[in-house]
Amino acid sequence: MDALRSVLGGGDGSGGGIIGGGYTAYKKQDFAELKRHHREEHTLFIDPTFPAIDSIIGTSSMPPNIQWKRPPDICANPRLFSDIEKSQIVRPGEFSCNWIVSACAVLSGVHEIRNKVIPDYWEQEWDAARPEQYCGLFHFRLWRFGQWLDVVVDDLLPTVDNTLLTLQGGLENEFWPALVEKAYAKLHGSYDALREGHLSDALVDFTGGVSEVIDLQAEEYSSHEDKRREFFEMLLSEMAHHSLLCFSVIAPLPSDIGTRTSLGINKGHAYHVTDVRRIHLAETNLRNLFKGRHKAAMVRLRDPRDEGRRPPSADR
Q1: In 10-21, which positions are buried (b, 16+ CB within 10 angstroms) versus exposed (e)?
Q2: What are the pLDDT digits (tens) for 283-311?
Q3: pTM of structure
Q4: One matching Pfam family, short form (predicted)?
Q5: Of 128, 131, 234, 310, which sees the most CB atoms within 10 A?
Q6: How far are the Cα atoms of 5, 72, 136 from residue 37, in angstroms, in the given order?
Q7: What's the pLDDT tens digit per position in 181-201?
Q8: Which of 38, 188, 241, 269 is catalytic?
């Protein structure tokens, strides 16, 4: 088992090409200028620095009939967020790497970080009442090599039979995961380049902080009560300081990803730690389960990719 934390932080975005707010325009593409130009010309943005061609996927297993489509060509009512407060489900596409799925799923549950990576989301949202505002242009902010980069993308996405091959939201008309993934792929050069990444890398790129991976099994936490107590105290402290905490059970083989442990935990999924508390058992229905104890150290986990599903019951 691994526990991973990312301590939130950031830099001042210093360097050349600084735009408003201290962000560097990646590849010198200024979002505001591009948006103004395409709205005035009534044209849709096509990104010349990351063209919608099969080579940016970069995999030999591509189906032969990929079509690059914009969200309005995929569904009738595209949205960046179907519901900004509830859009916390991220589903993998055929070409999505497991770790980027987990990273975006965790991102969806921490609003202050999500709103930094996806700036001014309300202004980027599709507006059916003002269709002339749409120009197929979006931007996202990612931390890279000591500075915040403002990454511009068009919204041409790879599909087969009108189904996205990249990340998908909880609803078919929700496109923020696919567009964040495209910005991240652009930063790395291709979608295929993301296969070499790790969840800890993405958490740093999303927060501008530092990350630490703690292997609970290798360090034998289950055998040392003192170490478990110290670890729980650290979790309490990190949660109080608004660190981004994740937990995962390693999947030894690709085929193990998504299979469940006896406790119902999905292997290979990154769970977002949403709360850490010492519970006074006398105030709960758990006192019969923890007989002889007055308090219990508890950690609440959430798997945004498996929202709404219950762990299998003991008799199944």
Answers
A1: eeebeeeebbee
A2: 677 777 777 678 888 899 887 665 544 43
A3: 0.83
A4: Peptidase_C2
A5: 234
A6: 41, 21, 12
A7: 999 999 999 998 888 788 888
A8: 269
